[in-house]
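Weekly puzzle thread! Below is a chain. First person to post its structure in token form gets bragging rights.
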Amino acid sequence: MQFDKAIALVVRTSDWSESSRIATLFTREMGKVRALAKGGRRLRSQFEVALDLLTVCRIVFIRKNGGLDLLTEARVEERFPGIRANLNALYAGYYIAELLGDGTQDYDPHPSLFDYSLETLRVLNKPETDVGARTLQFELAWLHELGYRPRLDACAVCGSADWLDAVPRYTFGALAGGILCPRCEPGQHDKRIVSRLALGKLGELGDPNRTSVELAPLLRVELRQVLGQFVSFVLGRRPRLLAYLE
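Winning reply:
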């Protein structure tokens, strides 16, 4: 019997029986893991606090081929009490958990995305954080890690860039995966108008070296709509928590 160890972020839990729970864990070493925690619903269980949503814990589990893994140990490593004290930050944290839980595959590790997720939660844990801007940054990092980074420097269909300075605004196509030139735009579906300023801010938000980006209220709304549409396309459905961010 082989025991695996990992550091994990709890992204979802559900009841399995009167005494047990199923935990979906996004681990640094192995990607997403779904494991049965026997006795996880009992008071004073060893899993009682460790399996709270958005808790970082050290886990030990037994891999089961073709079924749920068996969680044998979970020890709390880090919690984010500041997020729970700020409703906007809490919704953002739950949204991050939803993207990690539904937008990644079992046993497909993304260590850089795991690290960025924890970094984002630590920033959201601070009361002075611009929650909206930081959530937009996370979405772009999530898209980049999964191979869906939007094309913003040229037409996502034909690759041309000679038209960029000649238009007052742009069209973003979710299906195409980026902005569209005037020649390609008519043949594309699932698209939306994007202002020149918003396109520039998307580039700033997607820069991993930028720690903060200032967003005016109307610009924030525009970016939320653009990325919300694109994330929904990539995920294959509209995220449940997206409405709470809007």
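Puzzle host: Confirmed. Bonus trivia for everyone else. Helices lie at 81-84, 87-102, 111-124, 131-145, 196-205, 217-235, 242-245.
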